[in-house]
Amino acid sequence: MNYQIDKIREDFPILGRTVYGKPLVYLDNGATTQKPRCVVDAMTEEYYNVNANVHRGVHFLSQRATDLHEQSRETVRKFINAHSTNEIVFTRGTTESINLVATCFGDGCMDEGDEVIVSEMEHHSNIVSWQLVAQRKGIKLRVIPINDEGKLCLEEYEKLFNEHTKIVSVTQVSNVLGTVNPVKEVVRIAHKHNVPVLVDGAQSTPHFAVDVQDIDCDFFAFSGHKIYGPTGIGVLYGKEKWLDRIPPYMGGGEMIKNVSFEKTTFNELPFKFEAGTPDYIATTGLAKALDYVSKLGMDNILAHEQELTRYAIEQMNQIEGMKIFGPSASERDAVISFQVGDIHHLDLGTLLDRLGIAIRTGHHCAEPLMHRLGIQGTARASFGLYNTKEEIDILVTGIERIKKMF
Ligand code: PMP
């Protein structure tokens, strides 16, 4: 495999910095990833040389900015293998994409007493957005339980369907357990009951190739900043038949065809869901990031990160008192939530930080999962395409050092 990690790391200027005099070891990629120079450069270049509002202008710069923006949509389409760019809606991120579906699908396709199926391992964004619809419209949340290994109980899932089930909304990868859910099977079962599925791809898209037509999901959400792109930009993929059927999310410019005080008609897809000036600089950055990972090869990234995860679990398990949550190394993604003896996760995170090691601590926006696991929180190391085994060694040595202090 031609995966030149030293060269790859040079693309990310921040990885060369120190923290408290120690080289930065950045293991918080599940929260956000660092940006390669090409992403920042492309955005700067557009601000300096192209900047103009998109879609509405007849002048040179506006047309150039529109071209870049729409080319970015095509890059996204290709990246997730959507059928058409009409199915690619730009949002602010996974959270907004899920809220869009919950709100618009809730308004357009659900009535009091109807049900949405989510899972016990969801991020708050895929729970609370549905709870808001529940409060407004009297719909109910049904929950797919997980087993002790941290995997979805598919038999229980199938039992949740009834005539009130209107949509299923599940994550492809757990941001806590690393579990890679069998979303294709989740979709197959839902479609047997004529129920559409939203897949949360926040933690999958940065780590392995996603093909929305192969999964056959009806909606798919992901965030730019977790896949080496800029903050504030994300994607909602939706099959045209559903995007046509559900009402718009926000009203304003761009999303209309004609407006009068008596009657307004809406723009065609995907613009019906894109009210206001889009973040056309960020879409350029996102497209650059997708080009960057595509050039490295998603399969190469996956192989590199799987090797790191396997190595990390092996090394971390040598530490006395180490408890790692989630399935075995071969069945999980590049995220490891753990506890060490009775050291509080916050102490662990704070002391590792002093060694230059950035990890995340807490409930990871998954409080219901924490309740299921019977814990308050964990420490979490999550890997990206630029991490190395040496960094894992530094983490393990750091944890050993902290353990001796307690
Ligand atoms: N879903 C999952 C599984 C996540 O890990 C996250 C981010 N931690 C989100 C949704 C929300 O993503 P964002 O904050 O980028 O909207």
Fold and architecture overview:
The protein is α/β, with parallel strands linked by helices and 406 residues long. 41% of the residues lie in helices and 17% in strands. It is built from 14 helices and 17 strands. The strands form 5 sheets. A 7-stranded mixed sheet has the order 4-10-9-8-7-5-6, sandwiched between helices. It has a 4-stranded antiparallel sheet with strand order 13-14-17-16, with helices on one face. α2 packs antiparallel against α10 and α11 packs parallel to α14. It binds 4'-deoxy-4'-aminopyridoxal-5'-phosphate. 4'-deoxy-4'-aminopyridoxal-5'-phosphate binds next to α4.
Care to give the gist of this entry?
This protein is of the alpha/beta class. It has helices spanning 5-10, 37-49, 60-80, 94-109, 125-137, 154-159, 183-192, 212-215, 240-245, 280-296, 298-316, 345-354, 367-373, 389-405, and strands at 18-19, 22-23, 25-26, 88-91, 115-119, 140-144, 165-171, 197-200, 219-223, 234-238, 256-259, 264-266, 322-325, 335-340, 357-358, 360-362, 378-382. Helix content is 41%, strand content 17%.
Attribute tags:
single chain, 406 residues, seven-stranded mixed sheet, globular, binds 4'-deoxy-4'-aminopyridoxal-5'-phosphate
Name the structural class. alpha/beta
**How many strands, what sense, and barrel or not for the largest sheet?**
7 strands, mixed
Unique bound compounds: 4'-deoxy-4'-aminopyridoxal-5'-phosphate
Q: Mean pLDDT, nearest integer? A: 97
Order of the strands making up the biggest sheet = 4-10-9-8-7-5-6
Q: Could you name the ranges where pLDDT drops below 50 across 5 or more consecutive residues?
A: none
- Note the beta-strand portion: 15-25%
Through-space gap between termini: 42 Å
> In total, how many beta strands?
17
As a whole number of angstroms, the C-alpha radius of gyration is: 22 Å
Number of helices: 14
Instruction: State the shape.
Output: globular
Measured as a percent range, the helix fraction is 40-55%
